[in-house]
Structure formats: structure tokens, C-alpha cells
What does this fold into?
Amino acid sequence: EDSNDQTIAGPRVSLEGMQKPELSFYLFHGFEAEPGDLTLKVYTNYDDEGWKLADEVDYNNGSEGWSRYSLPLRTDAHNLQIAFGAYAADQSASLYIDHIAVAEGVDNELAIEGIRADKRIAVGTASNIEVSVSNYGMETARDFTVKLYKDGEAVAEQAVASLEKNTTAHVAFDFVPALTDAAKTFVFNAELVADKDTEAGNNASGTVK
It folds into this structure.
């Protein structure tokens, strides 16, 4: 066959008493499929009104690894069923989702999802250090800063004007080792500074060498 569609539905979930109900889940991304060839479809069924397509997420979004997605839910409904569907143009990859939750959403929530750096850097040659920042909130994030640290000392920072919900910004920093840095090992990490951010526990990255 030229295509393959599969769907799995979950149990009924109560929305009673929720002020800003939100569906959230994690999807693993990769490059095995071409953009558009493998997508995750999210369906909702409020109060047995019938299934409707609520959103689609592409497997190949230009990054590799787990990313969180969220979907605001209706506030006028009593209960909800959720289904996930997969469309594949071929069998080049599999879809993995995890940590599915229906909970109160927050307007402002940013998180550092990772930091990447080249394992080996030549002296006098620019190397790219990339920090991935995702917007987990229900609103567009505005005016935040990403700081880069080398061996515990802040060496650069970049301001980000805005980031839409359910999107990831890949903030790039250039690092050029000097001749005196030959044979040295550096430890890099990043920090996110956002005045309106709700949860500070995910605003720092791990370290890379």
C-alpha cells in the first residue's frame, strides 16, 4: 500500500472544575522519514459529540529527540476522549508518544530541551554550540534570554523576541578556541532567563564537553 493509517483511542476524561484544561504529550522526532511523510494526528471527542481532528504534528520537524506538545481544550465541555492517529507514506520510521496528560495549563512556560556542541574543535576555527528552547506555555513567549556558560563562567547571551507555543527555537552560539586553548577540554551549559516563566526547574541545561 502507498499509505498506512492507524488510530488508538483513550478512555473518557472528566473536565469538570478545570479552568484552563490542556492536553500535553511528548513525541519522539527523527530524520528517518521525509517531512510530511509521517505525522501524528490528534483527535478529540467532547461529550460524545463526535470525533474531530484537533491537530497534526510532523515526525520530522528538523530535530531529533523528545519534544513536548500541548493543546488547549474546551472549557464548556464536561468530558473528553482523546485518540492518536498515525499517517505514514511508507514504513521508514515509527512514532513514539509518552507522558500523555490532561491537566491545568499555564500561560507562560519555557524550557531548555538540550544543548549540543561539536566533540572536537580545531584551534582558530568557529564551532557552533546550539541550545534548544521550547515553549510549553499556552501563550506566545516574549522577550527572554539564553545565556551560554563555559567552565561555569557566562561567555555569551542572546535575546529572543518571541516564540510561538508548541515550537522550539535553536539558539546558536559561535565559539572560536584560541591557540592557548589547544588540547584543553571545555564544559558548556546554558541558562534561560524569562521574567514570566512559571517553572524555573527546567530553565538550565545539562553540560556538554
Q: What stands out?
A: The chain has a mean pLDDT of 89. The two ends are 46 Å apart (CA to CA).
